[in-house]
Every structure is written in C-alpha cells, then in structure tokens.
Design goal:
Elements (H helix, E strand, L loop, with lengths): L5 H13 L2 H8 L3 H15 L4 E4 L2 E4 L1 H26 L6 E8 L4 H12 L4 E8 L1 H9 L5 E4 L12 E16 L16 E4 L5 H12 L5 E5 L3 H10 L3 E4 L5 H5 L3 E19 L6 H16 L1
Parallel strand pairs: 3-4, 3-5, 7-8, 7-9
Antiparallel strand pairs: 1-2, 5-10, 6-9, 6-10
Keywords: DNA-binding, Transcription, Transcription regulation
InterPro entries: LysR_HTH_N (IPR000847), LysR_subst-bd (IPR005119), WH-like_DNA-bd_sf (IPR036388), WH_DNA-bd_sf (IPR036390)
GO molecular function, one term: DNA-binding transcription factor activity
Length: 298
C-alpha cells in the first residue's frame, strides 16, 4: 500500500503556501497541535524532512520545495475538478504572478507584458523586489516568472533555475536634444559631465572598457543603479547618460533627449527566470516563446 496520505499532503500544502501554522489550523478548524502532529506524521511516513523549524517559523527544505511543486499541481487540478462538478465547466482564465527586479527598466517591463494586456483570458500581478527575494518567491511558488537584467549562476548538478534571454537592448550615449556631438568619440566629449550606472553593473563595466579603449576619463557627476532614477537624471541633469534608449523612449519621442551615439557591440541583456516544475501555465509558455522568437528573429 502506498505510504502517501493525501490528507496529510493537503495539510502540508496549506501550511507551505500560507507559511503560518496557526492561521492554517484556524482555517481548517483544528488545533495547532493536531495540525503539527499530522505534518510530522507525513514526514515520518515519507522518511523526509519538509520543514526546518526556526523558532516559531517553518522554513521549507529543498525536499519541501519539491513536494510543494507536486502538491501545487495536484490541488490546482483538484480545484479545477471541483469547479467542473459544481458549475459544469472549468474557468479558462489564467493568472500569472510576475516578479520584477526593482532596478529594472519599467519601459522594458511594459513591453514584455504587452501581450498579456491584449489577452482578456489572462490576469497578472507584478511584484518588484530585490534579487534574493525574487528567487525565494520562485522557489516557494509564489511567483511564476522573474524578470531581471542580472544572470544567475546555475548548479549543473541540480539546475533549479531556468534562465532564458528574452531581449537584448543596445547601449547608447543619450543627452539633451539639440546638442549632439557630430564627431567620433572621444572628440568633443572632453568637457562633458556624465551620469552613469553603478560601478558593479554590467553596463558600467562595458562603458569603462569602451572608455579605456580610447583612453578617455569621464567626469562622473552622479551614479545610480535604478533605471527609473537614471531616466530622471537623464531628463533633468543636462548630463550625458549611458543606458538602453528603450529606458528613455518617451523622452526621446517628446524631443527632450536624443541618442548621441550607440556603443558598438555592447548590450544590456534581459532575462526571464523560472523554476523547474511539472505544470507550467500555457500562457507563460506562450509568452516566453513569443519573446524568444522575437529575439532570435532580431
């Protein structure tokens, strides 16, 4: 006989999703001690530790994350079945939870999600967080997808993360409209002030290499890691800024800024990160395929 008790699995699933034993016990109308005992019995039967207990907190173990992935599949299908039995149909509406790196260009995000806005059968939520919190959200299945401009290293023995390049934007020198320097770099740039991405960013490293090639030392007035802040500084400082033109496309269209010159063979890469799971929403697969196909064709 199978050792898997689906009643126990359901209790585990509720606690793993909610993250609070007391709240789940109250919702299920059982005592906290009884709920805890059921989960311990489940762990004992399966001979695996699913939670680490740190004070009053329950933290999923690596096995716990994997079991949660299966439980999500099992009980989401169960909810669909219940809907079918009650209503005679299954809702076609799909929802995506998308995490966004806080420093990412909002114009890129808007461009990425535009296919979802045109689909009445899809709803989505956007959550902006730091990288570690985003990856935790993926691991806990709170997020379906993370958008970032930072690649992550992959453990080839256990590739939890799946990273796909979905866009690459050329970098350019952008400045006030009407003051373009009509000469090859670095001629004409000697007395210019600069606003640049932070020293640890890939964009800054690329620009530093470009300047070193020409033995040019930029007069850096300000630095910012946040693309939204770089956009504001580009608009209001009068200085030159290095960034993908997509970040300031509205200002370029309005005639406030213009591209002075593109940096040769230098790009900012944008990645979509997902985690391995047995069930992947069809709308997510279609969205990634659309952007990947577009990037390949470009």
């Amino acid at each position: 006989m199978s050792r898997l008790n689906y009643h126990h699995l359901y209790y585990f699933w509720r606690v793993a999703v909610v993250g609070n034993l007391t709240h789940v016990a109250k919702d299920l109308h059982i005592s906290q001690s009884a709920l805890s005992a059921q989960i311990k019995q489940f762990e004992h039967n399966m001979n695996v530790n699913l939670f680490e207990r740190r004070g009053r907190r329950l933290i999923l173990t690596a096995h716990g994350h994997r079991v949660l992935a299966y439980a999500n599949d099992i009980f989401s299908k169960g909810e669909e079945l219940e809907s079918f039995l009650r209503k005679g149909s299954i809702s076609e509406k799909q929802h995506l939870s998308i995490g966004v790196l806080t420093t990412l260009s909002r114009n890129f995000v808007e461009s990425f999600i535009s296919p979802l806005l045109a689909n009445a059968d899809v709803s989505f939520s956007l959550t902006a967080k730091g990288m570690s919190n985003l990856l935790n959200g993926l691991a806990n299945h709170e997020l379906d997808l993370v958008l970032t401009n930072r690649p992550i290293s992959v453990d080839k023995k256990d590739p939890l993360w799946q990273t796909q390049l979905v866009s690459r934007q050329p970098l350019a020198i952008v400045g006030p409209k009407g003051k373009v320097i009509n000469d090859s770099f670095p001629n004409g740039y000697q007395d210019m002030r600069w606003v640049l991405p932070g020293k640890n960013s890939e964009i800054r490293a690329a620009f530093n290499s470009f300047c070193a090639t020409w033995q040019y030392q930029p007069d850096v007035q300000a630095e910012a890691d946040d693309m939204a802040m770089l956009r504001l500084l580009a608009r209001d400082s009068g200085a030159l800024v290095v960034l993908p033109p997509v970040v300031v496309k509205d200002e370029i269209e309005q005639g406030i800024l213009e591209v002075y010159q593109r940096l040769p063979n230098v790009y900012e890469n944008f990645y979509a990160i997902t985690t391995q799971r047995k069930f992947v929403p069809e709308v997510l697969l279609a969205l990634l395929k659309q952007h990947i196909d577009t990037e390949v064709s470009n």
